[in-house]
Amino acid sequence: MTQMYNNGPDQVVPTEDTIVVKADEYTRLRIPETGKAIETTSPISVPGLLARTAKEFPNSTALAQKSQWSVGNAYLHYLEKVRICAKAFLYLGLERSHSVCILGFNSPEWLISDIGAIFAGGIAVGIYTTNSPEACLHCALVSDANIVVVENDTQLQKILPFKSKLPHLKAIVQYTGQPTDANVITWEKLMKIGEEQPDDLLEESLKRIAINECCTLVFTSGTVGNPKAVMLNHDNLTWDALAITERLTLDRGSEFIVSYLPLSHVAAQVMDIYVSMTIGATVYFADKDALKGSLVNTLIEVKPTKFLAVPRVWEKIHEKMMQVAAQNGYLKKAIASWAKGHALQYHLDKIKGIRSKSWGYTLARALIFRRIKDAIGLNRCTLCVSAAAPLAPELKKYFLSIDIPIMDVFGMSEASGAHTMCVENATNLETIGMTIPGMKTKLANPENDQGELCMYGRHIFMGYLNDLEKTLETIDSDGWLHTGDLGRIDEKGLVYITGRLKELIITAGGENIPPVSLEQAVKAELPCISNATKRKFLSILLTFKTEVEGDNGAPLDTLTSAVQEWLRSLGCPATTVTEVLQAGPDPKLLNALKEGLDRVNQVATSNAQRIQKLAILPADFSIVTGELGPTMKVKRKVVEKKYADIIEKIYN
């Protein structure tokens, strides 16, 4: 940057380029000349936003984790720690347009590293903790990493073997545990380095920052091919957070948020971090073993007013509650069924615009649902959100029946964070919500009221780093982002996802079949099923729900207790997937599965959408075994390749 652009961090460098693919280039902000106030809100940088919030809410807790709920992370302290971290990064050699890659679980150190990299004029890059060493190398190479921050030795061992292949790498930092390599810097040492540095270099770096330059890279989940690096500028992040805040009508300085989202995913960065930074709220991080049972303990301790989680978290809470309910006696089950019926009807009526509280719902809410919410720590929660992937309608219906409405938020890495959102008076069981004010949604090439969902707004990304071809495939000449999702928009403006364009199955008769909705229908009819995926319509591959390994979430052979109980009710006393398959499987089990598929087929929209055959796979899907991406979406090509022999038997 030349000397004339030395008025950062809240400056905007003049440019006419709306799409760029180089880390040191600037993009024109998509600010309309006319429109709602939120559309023309003055841009602000990430450093500017944090400094403003620290001034307005200096003593409000910013970041918290177990055993440190309110220790040393007030916004004023948070800002100071970010500045110290930024000074340390500059001392270690962080250059402009180069990155700090962060590989670890949710923690204050993660966020301080992320924002610290931006303050220093570098680029923050989150890497999924589930990534393989090769995937970590890809992210570090593409982003020209100067510094890599890892959580512990497990993550460190993904970096050390490839250290010599990273030409720009200058330092590795580990923020928990003692490094096994003497050249790796501890978090305490990093902060000490920063404390010893004068402010001169940092202030100079802040002056050179521009709102319309890349400050964050988010790597796509890599469902197909290598992950692409999504370039986001300051306005993408801070304006999207403001838009979300306005849509949710969040109160400044009084919100508490508990997150279970991987921070390397943009939905977490915007929904949790930048939204909380915008309103001066506290973000409480769940423990890394949350899915093994500790999440509820965190919720009970914190009693959040907002709870954001991926669908898998809601699924785990549902499974646990169903296990508890199964142990109840006849009277408790009868009372629960009565209460749930009233709650479900109340919320379904509310969705339709019918405002009425039956005496049954009022009584159940006071005597039963209050206790349920107390037991899972959601008694103060006014907003429950599911993000990263759509929540199944049947799961939404279950939580409505216990008086816990869950709102879907839809976005993608290329759109910074949220684009549509369910809120009161703008929700139902199938929708992903209404477009957030200031953003726009349209259907490309619509046919029978369905088409590809496209997005427009200030939150749309700059481009894929060093990949102009893919960028131009994704953003058209008018600036619309093509999502690859097939969807529709109803007369109320509610948006629906009906499938993925690349996943459409074309039958011999030429009919296009979106598999996702059918898979959700199968899982609703067969609660024992964990995953369902199809090929060459109509056949289906099923996996049973199993226990998982504690450390990495890999599926075990042991069936969950709920599945075992269901099998016993059929007269098939198996405890493992192996036993199920060795039994043939049992004709009684096959009949039960086929009856479930028959119920799905009865409501199929056409004969082409009727499932003809099934096969049971020998293991459940997981991230670590490769069938699921980081956001828990099925990698269909991986599944088809891995189980090619089983698939061929179906068709031969």
TrEMBL record:
Keywords: Fatty acid metabolism, Ligase, Lipid metabolism. This is long-chain-fatty-acid--CoA ligase. The keyword Lipid metabolism applies. Pfam families: AMP-binding. Its EC number is 6.2.1.3. InterPro entries: AMP-dep_synth/lig_dom (IPR000873), ANL_N_sf (IPR042099). SUPFAM superfamilies: Acetyl-CoA synthetase-like. Residues 51-465 form the AMP-dependent synthetase/ligase domain. Gene3D superfamilies: N-terminal domain of ligase-like. It is an enzyme of class 6 (ligase).
